[in-house]
Write a structure and sequence with these properties.
The protein is mainly alpha-helical. Among the domains are: 45-185 and 328-396, no CATH class; 265-325. It has helices at 2-21, 25-36, 49-64, 69-86, 95-117, 150-176, 179-184, 191-220, 229-255, 266-291, 299-317, 333-355, 357-360, 374-380, 386-389, 436-457; strands at residues 126-133, 144-149. The chain has a two-stranded antiparallel ribbon with strand order 1-2. Helix 3 packs parallel to helix 12 (333-355), helix 4 (69-86) runs parallel beside helix 6 and helix 12 (333-355) packs antiparallel against helix 14. The longest helix has 30 residues, at 191-220. It is globular, with a radius of gyration of 32 Å. The termini are far apart.
Length: 458
């Protein structure tokens, strides 16, 4: 009994020592959870822009394989949740609402065209009858008005919802990926195209600002700022300013060595052109095979071969570029996880389309209520992985301690702060300056206390 008591006491003392030293199982579990927690997005930890596009394209590919409104709505919900959890306050991050509205417009127009022009889907359920407009004989096969069938309207709604889901998935990529960083990540073979797009993106807002400024100046001078009479007065100064900026930018880029390229043998140039062109054609053909309903199993092999050929051509073409990159974006483990989640959703839907086509494309003739296939729906939930592993925007890390929106995470150990407390030299900059009057008042107070104490002792 004494030996058992001693062993129990030793184990208890050892567990307490491990707990005090931070090596116990509880502390190891907390450390593991802290390591899995998504970091705050900074310039060094931000997710690669290409990962967001691969994730969105995976969801779009899955949406193209189904007309089930339940699955399409689930894909839209997943994309919307990830966007709301990981988008920033940048201007491009506000594009998701526009794509949602565009998707709604697409659905409404698709149903409206089916009502006015009819549908090729047959049926027996007549909703209502519109006045039919007689058309000439050379327009045979086209009608305006007539009977509106419930089967045709439902089929048009399913088809429009699928197209709207594709647009919303692309809108999610636009809202999450920084376009400037995406252009900086282009391979060396597309260097000139990336520079042209960046210049265009930079000049377009300036042109709009010039137009607004010219119109305001004309209003202040009492001249018309609308209509054809104001076009010449606004367009000429705007074009003149754009031309001056273009010349200045061209001179600056020429002085910095833009447009230089290394010498490459003619055989390498011809091989690069053949690989790039053939690869892009293979990518187009393979993508069509995957997105089309009757693409068969040839779409994926053609797409893989095309991607491989295009990658080889871009790599060879990148040898001509002599530029260097300042702080390139890294493709880390989190980027792989985000891209893999989109690819997993697309793969699951491709397999489901071959195994259970009726579940992904519910029939409209006869009218039946769509059912939710379980494992394709579970595969869609894999698209929520970026909301967990992707770095969270800086605004999400605020604890709300003040009304001024200050970042309070470095001074709270319970929240996993990894930096010095606020006010110390380090990540938050130099310590705040002290008020000189405060120290003077303290010295005066101490002097008065000492004097009072001396007088009381005397």
């Amino acid at each position: 009994m004494r030996g058992r008591a001693e062993s129990t006491a030793e184990s208890t003392a050892g567990a307490a020592a491990e707990a005090r030293s931070g090596n116990g199982p509880v502390h190891r579990g907390r450390a593991l959870l802290a390591g899995l927690r998504a970091p705050v997005a900074t310039r060094a930890t931000a997710l690669h822009a290409g990962a967001w596009w691969l994730w969105a394209l995976g969801l779009a590919t899955a949406a193209s394989r189904t007309t089930n409104p339940l699955l399409l709505g689930l894909i839209i919900a997943v994309a919307g949740y990830v966007v709301s959890a990981r988008r920033t306050d940048a201007p491009w991050a506000r594009a998701f609402g526009f794509f949602l509205a565009l998707g709604a417009v697409v659905v409404v127009l698709r149903v409206l065209f089916a009502v006015l022009l009819g549908s090729t889907v047959g049926g027996t359920h007549v909703l209502f009858t519109l006045p039919e407009v007689p058309l000439p004989g050379w327009m045979q096969g086209v009608r305006l008005g007539g009977r509106v069938l419930a089967e045709g309207v439902l089929f048009s709604f399913y088809d429009g919802l699928r197209l709207a889901t594709l647009l919303i998935c692309l809108g999610a990529a636009n809202a999450l990926a920084d376009p400037a960083r995406l252009l900086k990540s282009l391979p060396g073979a597309l260097y000139e195209a990336g520079v042209a797009v960046v210049v265009a993106m930079t000049f377009a807002p300036r042109l709009i600002g010039d137009v607004v400024r010219m119109r305001a100046a004309r209003r202040l001078r009492g001249r018309p700022d609308r209509g054809l009479r104001s076009v010449a007065g606004v367009a000429l100064p705007v074009l003149e300013g754009a031309l001056e900026r273009s010349v200045a930018l061209a001179a600056a880029m020429d002085a910095r060595g833009y447009g230089r390229s290394a010498r490459v043998p003619p055989g390498v140039r011809r091989t690069t052109a053949a690989l790039t062109l053939g690869g892009l054609l293979g990518v187009c053909a393979g993508s069509y095979g995957l997105l089309a309903a009757d693409g068969g199993m040839l779409g994926l092999p053609v797409l893989v071969v095309g991607v491989a050929a295009a990658t080889a051509g871009l790599w060879l073409g990148g040898r001509r570029a002599v530029r260097t990159r300042y702080r390139p974006d890294r493709w880390g483990v989190r980027a792989w996880l985000v891209a893999a989640s989109g690819a997993a959703v697309a793969t699951a839907f491709a397999v489901a389309a071959a195994a259970d086509p009726a579940g992904l494309a519910p029939p409209t003739v006869p009218l039946t209520a769509p059912s939710l296939p379980l494992w394709p729906a579970g595969a869609v939930l894999l698209g929520l992985l970026p909301a967990v592993v992707a770095p969270s925007p800086a605004e999400a890390a605020r604890t709300g301690g003040g009304t001024d929106g200050t970042d309070n995470r470095h001074g709270d150990d319970s929240e996993g702060g990894d930096g010095p407390p606020r006010g110390l030299p380090g990540r938050d900059g130099p310590p705040p300056a002290r008020d000189p009057g405060t120290a003077a008042r303290r010295r005066a107070a101490h002097g008065e206390d000492d004097g009072d104490h001396g007088r009381s002792e005397g």
